[in-house]
Amino acid sequence: MKELGIGVIGCGQWGPNHIRTLHSLDGVFVRCAADLSDERRQMVSRQYPWVETTDDMDRVINDDDVDAVVVATPIRTHHSIVKKALNAGKHVLCEKPLTLRSCDCEELAELAEVKGLTLMVGHVFMFNPGIVHLKEEIENGSLGRIYYLDAVRTNLGPIRQDVGATFDLASHDISIFNYLLDAEPIEVSAHGGYYIQPDREDMAFITFEYPDKTLCHVHVSWLNPRKVRQLTVVGDKKMAVWDDMKPLEMIRLYDKGLDGSPGYDTFGQFQMILRDADITIPRVNMYEPLLKQAEHFIDCLRAGRTPLADGRNGLATVRALEAAVESLRHHGRPVPIDHAVRQI
After folding, report:
1. Residue 275 bridge partners (DSSP)
2. Beta strand pairing call for 91-95 and 68-71
3. Measured at the alpha carbon of residue 339, what is the angle toward residues 333 and 342, in degrees to the nearest 5?
4. Full-model pTM
5. For the purposes of burial, counting CB atoms within 10 Å of the CB of 51, is it exposed (0-12), middle (13-18) or buried (19 or more)?
6. Domain range spanning residue 96?
7. Which CATH number does the domain housing residue 64 bear?
8. Is residue 166 part of a domain?
9. Per-residue pLDDT reduced to its tens digit, 18-27
């Protein structure tokens, strides 16, 4: 098995984690890492002394011993760096979202396809054990027809300077919605608050309409006293709740719903027949999602398979984000996904 050489561009919050997880895999060697900050390069050298560090990303991209590049830089730089890496013949794993504009996502997806290279987006929650379990519950039909999904992703900070809370946080939930429903939204409406920065929303309430009238809603915020990562899935047979902050009971299945037509108990009164049965906490095998993502990326490289979160998947997420931002600008006006403004 040929050893795969990896280069990492960007050593801030996520870059060192990519170094750690990828280097732990058999047949994978993280050769070099680039960052403009001398402090971050020194931190990488202390933690991973075998990794060559540089302030020049071109040294990483043009290294003949580097087969794949991880891009963990600010979002606005993704397009140019990923394009340069693909043109240099490197496979790419890029942090989410892929770019700020869907037209740039489309360009990168097409470039990877033409060159026969793997382009994967770091939508890491597609590898979260709780989300994977929900996917299995939906696919085996235990929840029945899905009526709606309701997500909350909040915390006190961090306040970003490059994008608003929608691009920063809702990108996770859109990727989860698309993954669980195996579909893309067709329309979005969003309201947000601009409290800290006049040109970037600090929080937003966003609703996506999917095919078959399935609705998905997410509340994202940088201004919340509690860190919350929750998702409620409501089906016509059962309901489920994922809570990423409770690893020992990450998933709860509720045998609740409506059974049958209205029942009449007294003259002039009727009510739907409600089913309120057991609450089940299934066993979910825990693992690190970032490590599973790294394994999937390397497996796709070796086998020539398309990643779960490939360039087209990243494109779908950015299309939905663009439409949400346009709806925010127009105070909640519904925006068809295909008609969203193509610039941020």
Report:
1. 257
2. parallel
3. 105
4. 0.93
5. buried
6. 4-123+290-309
7. 3.40.50.720
8. no
9. 999 999 999 9
